[in-house]
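for the record, two folds in this file. i put them one after another cuz i was lazy. first one right below, seq on top, structure tokens after. the second one comes after a little note so u can tell where it starts
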Amino acid sequence: MISFSAFLKRFLSDPVAIGAGIVLLVLVLMAVLAPLIAPQNPYDPLQLDIMDSEMPPAWKPGGDERFLLGTDAQGRGVLSTIMYGTGISLLIGVGAVIVQAVLGITLGLIAGYKGGWIDSFLMRLADIQLSLSTLMMAIIALALFSAAFDANTYADYAIIMLILVIGIAEWPKFARTVRSSVLGEKKKEYVDAARVIGLPARRIMWGHILPNTLTPVLVISTIQVAEAIMIEASLSFLGLGMPTDRPSLGSLIRSGFEFIFSGSWWITLFPALVLIALVLSLNLLGDWLRDVLNPKLRRGED
């Protein structure tokens, strides 16, 4: 396992990792501090004025210095909605990965340690799940949910539903990664010693084997957050994600798409750029972590 000092040295010597880390840090801080630093609360109707709708960015003719990046069709400042929307996208992405990790790590540990028919059953279940498109399953589940409940109920539980649907659909990636690590770890001497002294299987799996399988889990978690954010953005763009009154980055892009050809390009462009920056920074950091924590996988090496 790489030491913290070596890890930090590798990070500071890689300009791509530094750039991705800075971008991600800025976006996370912007999202967390949105209630304190955002010029406007886009969820408060009392702060909205329809007369401010579709104002261009402040540096364009007709712009207003109150709205640096312009406003949308509801009079909400684009900068404020991006700050709040980034927080919702990150919440859904991280929440979905937590669900994936809990399910995947548990089933992967059981499959790898127990072996036999349990392993075969769980891995065939994972194969079936992986053969199905996550986006397709999410569309079906969310379409049924939106049809079964009224708009207000859907808005109240949209975040929870998105986290659960994306999390449940993506658990096999964690399960297969953990199972692969467990198959290698359970043959080592420290596991044999734990069995000899009579430790129960549950304690061996969770207390001894699991800590030695967390490196690949950390790498895949970073990449999966980016993927979950993209899935949520796709669903929101299709109208099956976050409602327009509590927008994520995906629903912000969708809300301005119909205005893009009428001249109000900023409503879609700026949220899209933030979404690209967020996903790209997460993917670059995940790729860097993979190379640092798994030296055999470094680019250019066999």
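(here's the note) second protein begins now
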Amino acid sequence: MEIRYLRYFVTVAECRHFTRAAEKLGIAQPPLSQQIKKLEQEVGVPLFERLSRGVALTPAGQVLYDDAVKILAQLDHAVQRVKQVARGERNQLRLGFASSTVVSQAVLELVRRLQQAHPDIDFQPIELPMPALVETLREQDVDLAFLRLPCYASEHVAHTPLFPDPFKLVVPANHVFAKQQSVTLSQLGDDPIILFPRDIGPGLHDALVDALKGAGLAPSNASLAPQLHSATAMVSAGFGIALVPESLTTQLSDHVAVVAVEDMPLVSHVVLAWQRTNTAQVVRRCIHTAREQVTQMGS
């Protein structure tokens, strides 16, 4: 299938009229109609419904349109990057952060090392909730992303593990647990537990709720923090206690204390993820460097 066929098809779909599309493309209308007919013959189904005053996409045409727009955008992006290299300009890499990873000191240290190892790359940070971030990866609107597992949507992308991040209990500094080295989940029943909204991380939320229910706790009455990393601030303000990944407890105020949970069955994992079909050299270089640096950071 020729790329120009897709461009012609997308233009007709957006103009909803062959004559207007031909004018926009700078070609005559009859050749455009012939090219669309050839495309329909090639895919084996009608793509447009011919109307008295224009055309409309068929269901099959709508499917092709959605994919064609993405293909053409990726092609234009690739051409632009080739021209940048030819002009000696810096490479760009769109680096995504799940909201619960952006304050992790380990993640930030790895990003610093990536920038030091690749001074020719212009890293562009993007912060999103995990489901939205995975979707941008799948659409290749983001090149690499730091995710926190478990995450249902992560099944659709490739990823490499960075580090485990066990959950810790955060309590007010004057709480009875504040001076204890550890507690069990069953001891938490008397305090309101602060959770994060399910829609910002369904997989992690469900796993945490299951862990609480397994200990006989009722998280349905929990307070909600705007984000996972906001839960510690709500503890400091006196809203309750919170279970958060350890990496979110490294720079807390004196108004809270961090306590280990002996029987916590849930361990989150921070990973670096990418779209499986993304073969860009700049992406592969950063994945390789991230793996090397994580090994050094852990030694």
